[in-house]
Amino acid sequence: MHASTNLHLIHGGHKGAEAAFGEVAEKFGVTETTLSFEGHVMERAVNVENLDDDALDKGRVSMDFVFQAMGRRFVSGHGVRRVLHSMFHLVTRSHDLYAVGVIQENGTVKGGTGWGVELAKLFNRKAHVFDQERGSWFIWDHDEWKQEDPTLPSGGKFSATGTRHLNETGRAAIEDLFQRSLGQPVKTTASESV
What we know:
alpha/beta; 194 residues; Rossmann fold
């Protein structure tokens, strides 16, 4: 087991998987940064770093490219584009991306989470996805998903994203990931100490 103080989580603070990653990270003594931007609604806002328009522009890609990479269309409103642009920062600041969602038949992950996973593939980052429907973790390896039980990196930064519709299986998978990697939590939450 390695010291959790060597790890730093980056996420977007969205309701569901991202907030859960942050909550579990806190229990294990892992520091975190929440990436945000003007108009962004967060459920978990810890050590918030606000991305200005110039920073978001670094993640700008053609929506046609997004549609082609994902094999489906997104609503292309301003807010959706800003979330997709912020994913660039989430992915490029670490070498490991952990996501919770559903892997579809075409190999992409359902919803906006899928864009983060596609960016991880494009930038040669390790993409780990817990598929809530199959109840298993997978890693993208040489153009295919392979079942795995991942651990967190031994140090440095890692990123997390995922579905807003986190179920109990997904939440347990996040807890298990941290426990498998780091041992026991360093502190308990108020609800657990009652």
